[in-house]
Amino acid sequence: MSPYGLHGRIVLLGIALALAGLFSPGAAQSPGGNVIVYLDPMTTAGVGGTVSLAPNGPETKLEVTLRPGDTTSDGRAYRMQLVEGTCATPGGVVEDFDAVHADGKATQRQSSLRLAEVRKQPHVLQVAAKHDVVACGMIPSARR
Question: Which pTM does this prediction carry?
């Protein structure tokens, strides 16, 4: 029996999982070239979600799942855009997308940009309410 007891082991496991989450990347890549971008909340409203990016010929297919944070953002429409740079230091807007609703459901969109080209330089997906960015996720660079 562990000297920590059951409660102590559960607490240690929770701490280990929390620390592992701090060092996890902001995106995942599948073997087929698809990328999942995790949209991290940037405000106290807590809006976040995921965007799955998949090469689709000369375009990129996006599947957006935006979950509401607090109850005031449930079902609200947000603007999503592809931006050069990082979440901490964003650059210019590369492409704007139609409204995305924070209802936890997936919405499919198309981008005229090739995913391979976007991944050559740092880019992020931003979700904004009016002029405030409420969620942001880094698109991983292509592996060389």
Answer: 0.74
